[in-house]
Amino acid sequence: MKLLKPFSAFLFLLIGSFSIAQTNDLGAWYMYFGNNKISNKFNFHNEIQYRSFDGTGDLEQLLIRTGIGYDLTENNNNVLLGYGFILSQPYRNGEKTENIEHRIFQQFITKQKFGRFNLQHRYRLEERFLEDDFRMRFRYYIGLNIPLNNKEMSPKTLYLSAYNEFFLHLNSSVFDRNRVYGALGFVINKNMKIEAGYMNQIQENKNRGQIQIGFYNNIPFTGN
Hints:
The protein is mainly beta.
């Protein structure tokens, strides 16, 4: 329980910031990520993200992603084919609108370890089917996890998490957006962890901050 105290305090501060969310244009993303083994080589990816304009009930975007991945090497170098459903409710001229997007994506993830530094690279290509348009986009993500109270990302470990991800259009103006993220995480057990942090997104020359709370579930479906 002692290990949870600093994480709980950090989480409390993040939730407290919602009281000034609207005046500071600060939103919140609540995220669930599942990456579950279905055999020695195959994995099932499942993901739900609820993105809010104000940290509570003003929906900005609901994102559901799923896919099947395959490890080219043992527990690493994963290729995946997936599908995403995205419901967006942006404001235009002060009025709330609604858009639905269907998305097919292909990605490659590779991991590296240097001492306590755990690196992950993700390369993703997206085919985006909008209501009245079709677009393609490339994304590159580099993430870092650093355990604090243990040498490894073992159960009951506090860790620092950070990532940078940029997005490039393939059939319009090149730059789409860039995201920079920092967080504190806690490894609950070998298959579950939780993170709470802050992400800043640059899009159309505008900066917008997001509180992010994510839960990660890697419980295998193989019974191992």
